[in-house]
Amino acid sequence: MTSQTHQQNLILDQGQIEQKITRMAYEMFEQNFEEQELVLAGIYQNGYTLAQKLAQKLEAISPIKVQLLQIKLNKTAPLETPIEVTPTEVNIDGKVVVVVDDVLNTGKTLAYTLNVFLPQNPKKVEIATLVDRHHPLYPMAATYTGYSLATTLQERVEVVLEENEIAAYLM
Length: 171
Hints:
Blueprint: E1 10-12, H1 14-31, E2 37-43, H2 46-61, E3 65-72, E4 84-86, E5 96-104, H3 108-117, E6 124-132, E7 144-148, E8 157-161, E9 166-170
């Protein structure tokens, strides 16, 4: 898909997304300024890319060390396959974990990721999302939101975080 096919549905361009990431990083720093280290756990694929961008920004603006984790799960049927977190050797005991995803829709994906982190005794778990669509079916709310957008259930938000294109579209 090229930008031309959904130009009329563009909701965030590259500059706006970068601005949102910067603001979210500052908010994370403000909320966690006493921490030595933060763990950003990005949901594969776009959530992890977003986590990488947030980590770069956080390390540029603060003394906080950032550990990155990648979470892989079956988003449509999270119980069918085990959730994979890599690298496995990262210790989150007593640390602040920020679960990062590109779009928060129903909260289902994020709810299932908590099962991975809660037994490891994190200090707190926060949620960062680029676009919050406000269709909660699970009690999940974003701590850090780039953009809030009321959508219908039929609409879909597609975030593109690639080298040649960074944008968010309403489909």
